[in-house]
Amino acid sequence: MTGERPGSLFEGKVVLVTGAARGQGRAHAVRFAEEGADVIAYDLCDQLDSVAYPMATPEDLEETARLVEKTGRRILAERGDVRDRDRLSEVLAKGVDAFGRLDFVLANAGILPAAGDKGRDIAAFTDAIGVMLNGVYFTIDAALPALLRNPEGGAVVITSSAAGFTSVSTEFGTMNHGAAGYTAAKHGVVGLMRHFARSLAEKNIRVNSVHPGGVATPMVLNQAMADWVGEHPSFSAAQQPLLQLPMMEPRDVSDAMVYLCGPAGRYVTGVALPLDAGQTLK
């Protein structure tokens, strides 16, 4: 990053962010815009029946767009499901037509359908796999034609989780379809990351995954999750980090995204990067 003026790290670059309406996705979109990138923002902005907490709304996506535009950068903010590859391709084509290129893909969209009665429905498993495994694959696959047109390559970062190294379920009482689906999906995307990292290296496209512990987002900080955690003390104990730090904020994850996509991370590919303050070392 040496020699780069503030806000110029990604000047002239374009990033796709899925799950961009709030939480980590919004933080990534704004941070990349602050570094000079134009943004293609994609989010469902609707409720899935298997998810017990309120999901993002169209108004949330509008706020992301407002915050990006406030930086002086351009944004194309579109609603869509990451399980719908055709819609992803449609939005990407629209974004590339508007901005001229695609450099970075942040496959961030996620759900946590483990809480309450809904977590015990088989749809919680299929939705988790659909959004966080199939959806990641569809996102990268739909973005590849534009990425491959860049002679200098690009970068893909998949949002996994500390649950990509361990399990959401910590005891028999926490074993449900949603916890199984979340754990399986977050493990599964490590395999996708390694598949793409090896396959795309000759095209100078780097592919990595990040594995945050608990992050202060609406996916974690909501009544349904608070009730579930309160019912299962073993789950809460398993989330405790080793480092004595406050709960991670979304922009802390954005720092890692900037590193992995920027010149400082140009030698990094095929890495599953823990961002959990030592949580998974226990």
From TrEMBL:
<dbReference type="InterPro" id="IPR023985">
    <property type="entry name" value="SDR_subfam_1"/>
</dbReference>
<dbReference type="InterPro" id="IPR020904">
    <property type="entry name" value="Sc_DH/Rdtase_CS"/>
</dbReference>
<dbReference type="GO" id="GO:0016491">
    <property type="term" value="F:oxidoreductase activity"/>
</dbReference>
<protein>
    <submittedName>
        <fullName>3-ketoacyl-ACP reductase</fullName>
    </submittedName>
</protein>
<dbReference type="InterPro" id="IPR036291">
    <property type="entry name" value="NAD(P)-bd_dom_sf"/>
</dbReference>
<comment type="similarity">
    <text>Belongs to the short-chain dehydrogenases/reductases (SDR) family.</text>
</comment>
<dbReference type="InterPro" id="IPR002347">
    <property type="entry name" value="SDR_fam"/>
</dbReference>
<keyword id="KW-0520">NAD</keyword>
<keyword id="KW-0560">Oxidoreductase</keyword>
<dbReference type="Pfam" id="PF13561">
    <property type="entry name" value="adh_short_C2"/>
</dbReference>
